[in-house]
Design goal:
2 copies of one chain form a homodimer. By secondary structure, the first copy, chain A, is of the alpha/beta class. Chain A is 25% helix and 23% strand. In chain A, helix 5 runs parallel beside helix 10 and helix 7 packs parallel to helix 8. At the A-B interface, strand 4, helix 4, strand 20, helix 7 and helix 9 of A face strand 4, helix 4, strand 20, helix 7 and helix 9 of B.
């Protein structure tokens, strides 16, 4: 495919070829009674063959559907779309102060015009200037912390992020927004949930599934929702702000310990698992979805506990898994292992002697389920009972990702293995639901008199 | 808790204590205008505190809700509930022939009265006798192949199962039902989908989330649905038959390559991911949900390809994952690795040199996503592009579990690495959706003219 019309195909490509326009040119699209003018921008591989996308003067992207009567005229020569941030809008000093800490990811990225791929590049200041509405919501201050794909983040980055957020809270901000790649956003959300205790103000992690210069970007709505929540949400917890549905309507605020990315590309990829989200932002209003939350209070004194033990592994079990993988981790000095077992929390009997050896070597071995929804229960089947008897710790309805992070954190807090275990199994920030939402719908609680 | 009233608590326990009845006793429950008689059976830890469960004369279990006016009277001394199968019902020789191959699991298990835990024990013949309706559906023949918890099954068991199913098909059965534990049922379903090619009749894998002697067991409905599908469904493919919802209404037939256990305990734990199920069984009727299926035809000649390479690993990526885990597998002689990456198919750059080394050692490295829904797309971000450039194979919208099984199978079929790779990426039994269902709902295909 030509670089000059990168990502275009089918009908849309045909009309563009007729117009002789290239990516970067200023074009005019005429269709029915409407006319659109803007700079032609490339499309992603995920795009359809029906839309031509232009960046209009305001900085927004518009996707125009091509029909048989659509006409495209080139009205200006090729130039790169202007991304230079305008001057910062005048700040309204009566508004709450919100700090945006940027770590990278799609929300802070754009298409690399050379390769067509997306690269992290944009600064928090750029983001702010792309969404001018932010100046009506808060006095925004920004800090670029990293510019990293989120799959490249490690516990070291969590520590640095927690410290940076804490610094801004101690400096008196009314709320913090952390922009982050979506790939490992759930892991970081859990990490900040444990590291930032006794929060006085909200910490909102936000990302985008499609970059800001794509027609279907979710960046603007998510960012507005996140800044709104940081500035005036009544809760003081760590939450993830992402689209509620594929339409551009509402943003859900998911609790940092209960959220998981469940779709590779959809804008509503993030879901709260085994619980209710904390709140949602709809029509500029924050709607609380639970009464059980820590209220915002500037009197509360933040407790920063940013230590994570890196020698903790996640091992997903599968049929025929080689138990020696467990041995290898023990020999490599790992101090904790989260086994993502099957069903209610099982692994094959062949693994038992390796698990015993791990426990005997003071490695904390904990169990979650690869089912994702529901709760492990290791008392139902003999394999589960045997595992508990040898010291494996069932982690209730904790997400595997949250379990990994919490085990890293527990071992970072406590040298003593029994104290670390106690911390791991104590519900601190809603990582364990008393009885998970899904579970409470289970038929046992609403069975009628006759069942076969 | 007393062994004598195992699993009972709260209100239900109080009423039972008053009655002096114990598990195994014959009791009478009087409530409103109804009277129930049967043998008191123990409850699971998952049960509520409102129901008393008895096994009535027909062999079914009944859960009776305890209210303030419920009375319980002991009318017979303790004895074990009678599990001895009655004589087989007279076979109707005009019905289709269905073979039930039993491998173990909850559907073939019952509570161990000694430990209170569930153990696999029951034979296919027992199952048949528990659900007498089966004799109206098919002439049922049974074979006990294993009696194993499904987490203990390995590729060796898949081979044996495929061979056994093939034997019965060659002997002229009209359909095969495989009873199986739910924990790894998705993996086995994928394995049989690849091993049993060109099927003339359906092969239906069935399980239960709660064992047959529990009040909320899903065993009977699932088994009836499975036998009905095996005997007369119009498709000849491998499918999984499990509850559609938590109510006892319909059974869904999920394609073997697209199904995943997504809840630890609910009866509707199994869902088709990124596609539509093949069919459902509702009110004794089979309703097809797709037109794209291989029709039943006894003329078609089964091709059995049961070879699986066991030296294939599944590695779930997580932040900070040690790349040496990859090296260890290469050194241990593994021939294939499925990486369950983040988002569109990513792992951290730190892993790149280990992945290069693996590929250089003729290990096939393939990528799926831990998001579960959606499709990997390694062309969007530079990390993804770099991974493809070094030889990592993106597996579209294939489930991780199916990808692991298919890589084992592809390497079992072909010695030549390029031929194995070709097999891995060729869509054989719907393991790859042309465009996944979820994806087609994505906003790119239905965007309106303006989006920010």
């Amino acid at each position: 495919m030509s670089e000059k019309l990168l990502g275009y195909k089918g009908k849309a490509l045909d009309v563009l070829l007729d117009s002789k326009a290239e990516v970067g040119d200023l074009i005019r699209i005429t269709k029915d009674e409407s006319t659109y003018e803007g700079i032609l921008i490339p499309r992603s591989e995920l795009g359809d063959d029906k839309h031509v996308v232009i960046k209009i003067k305001s900085g927004y992207n518009v996707g125009v559907e091509v029909t048989s009567i659509t006409k495209i005229t080139k009205i200006g020569a090729k130039r790169r779309p202007a991304f230079t941030p305008p001057d910062l809008p005048e700040q309204n000093r009566s508004l709450p102060k919100v700090t945006i800490v940027s770590t990278g990811g799609t929300i802070a990225s754009r298409v690399d015009y050379r390769t067509g791929a997306v690269r992290p590049a944009i600064s928090a200041r750029d983001l702010y200037s792309i969404v001018p509405e932010l100046s009506n919501l808060a006095m925004v201050d920004t800090e670029i912390l990293f510019s990293v794909f989120s799959e490249d983040l490690t516990p070291k980055h969590w520590i640095k992020t927690a410290e940076t957020v804490a610094k801004h809270i101690l400096n008196g901000t009314d709320g913090v927004v952390v922009t982050h790649g979506t790939d490992t956003m759930g892991y970081t959300a859990a990490a900040l949930s444990f590291a930032l205790q006794n929060l006085p103000v909200p910490v909102i992690i936000v990302g985008a599934q499609r970059s800001e210069d794509r027609p279907s970007s979710d960046a603007a709505l998510n960012l507005v929702g996140a800044v709104l929540a940081a500035s005036k949400a009544p809760f003081a917890e760590v939450a993830v702000a992402m689209h509620e549905s594929v339409s551009d309507e509402a943003v859900v605020l998911h609790r940092g310990t209960k959220v998981r990315k469940l779709h590779t590309s959809r804008r509503d990829a993030f879901k709260t698992v085994n619980a209710q989200p904390v709140a949602k932002v709809s029509n500029g209003q924050i709607v609380m979805l639970t009464e059980n939350y820590q209220p915002r209070s500037k009197e509360r004194k933040l407790v920063l506990k940013p230590e994570f033990e890196e020698k903790v592994a996640l091992i997903k079990f599968y049929p025929g898994m080689n138990p020696k993988v467990i041995d290898w981790h023990v020999e490599a000095g790992y101090k904790g292992i989260v086994l993502e077992g099957t069903g209610l929390g099982h692994v094959r009997q062949e693994c038992f002697s390796s698990i015993k050896r791990a426990v005997g070597n003071n490695v904390i071995v904990a169990m979650t389920s690869q089912c994702i929804w529901g709760r492990v229960n290791m008392n139902v089947y003999t394999n589960g009972r045997d595992l508990v008897a040898m010291g494996v710790i069932p982690l209730q309805d904790m997400l595997t990702e949250t379990a990994l992070v919490k085990l890293m954190w527990s071992l970072g807090q406590k040298q003593d293995i029994d104290e670390a275990k106690k911390l791991l199994t104590t519900n601190l920030v809603h990582e364990i639901s008393e009885r998970s939402i899904e579970q409470s719908k289970s038929p046992d609680t609403k069975q009628t008199q006759k069942e076969t």
